[in-house]
Specification:
Helix content is about 50%, strand content about 15%. About 20% of the residues are buried. The chain contains four helices and three strands, in the order βααβααβ. By secondary structure, the chain is an alpha+beta fold.
């Protein structure tokens, strides 16, 4: 089973896309709650992460892709 990797960056205050999208905002907040505070990373398989966050894998991938585009996270599968 592959391990997923998501690196969070905490400087989200000046990113309007985050505040304009409920999906992006809620996904980012949930990722922050699940992140290891030492390095702000979430290392968990995508399927398990989606289940833990209460969303489909497709929705999670869409949200993490958008969050990566605006520079808030780095995601690897």
């Amino acid at each position: 089973m592959n391990k997923g990797y998501i690196k969070l960056y905490r400087s989200e205050a000046d990113i309007p896309q985050l505040w304009e999208s409920a999906l992006l905002f809620s996904t980012y907040q949930k990722l922050k709650m699940l992140a290891d505070r030492a390095d702000w990373a979430v290392v968990i398989p995508v399927r398990r992460l989606a289940a833990k966050m209460g969303m489909s894998i497709g929705t999670l991938r869409k949200a993490t892709s958008e969050l990566a585009k605006i520079g808030l996270i780095r995601a690897e599968e």
